[in-house]
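ARCHIVE CARD
Drawer: 12
Card no.: 0347
Subject: one protein chain, sequence and derived structure
Cross-reference: see card 0346
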Amino acid sequence: MKVSRLEDTPAKEGHGGAVIREVITDKDGAPNFAMRVIEVKPGAATPSHNHPWEHEVFILSGRAVVKGEKGEAEISKNNVVYIPPNEHHCFESIGDEPLRFV
């Protein structure tokens, strides 16, 4: 078992103004999934990208537009987003506070 505080996990600068905290990874003994908390500054966006794994995303705070191959949607606190494997996608933070998601 691992119990920790988000603030105790080092922040890494990501692409496009994102800050990433990898709170659970294979280094913790999790062989199948990773849990990351990502924060995107207002007006910034993650780069459009794809990868062979899916995303299950829970929005903690902020507002954004999530863009995928089949369109885009505005999202905010308590929204859930699923992005299938290999789909190009990005998150664009809109509004006055950072977008924060797991």
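Annotation on reverse: The chain has a mean pLDDT of 94. The first strand starts at residue 12 and ends at 13.
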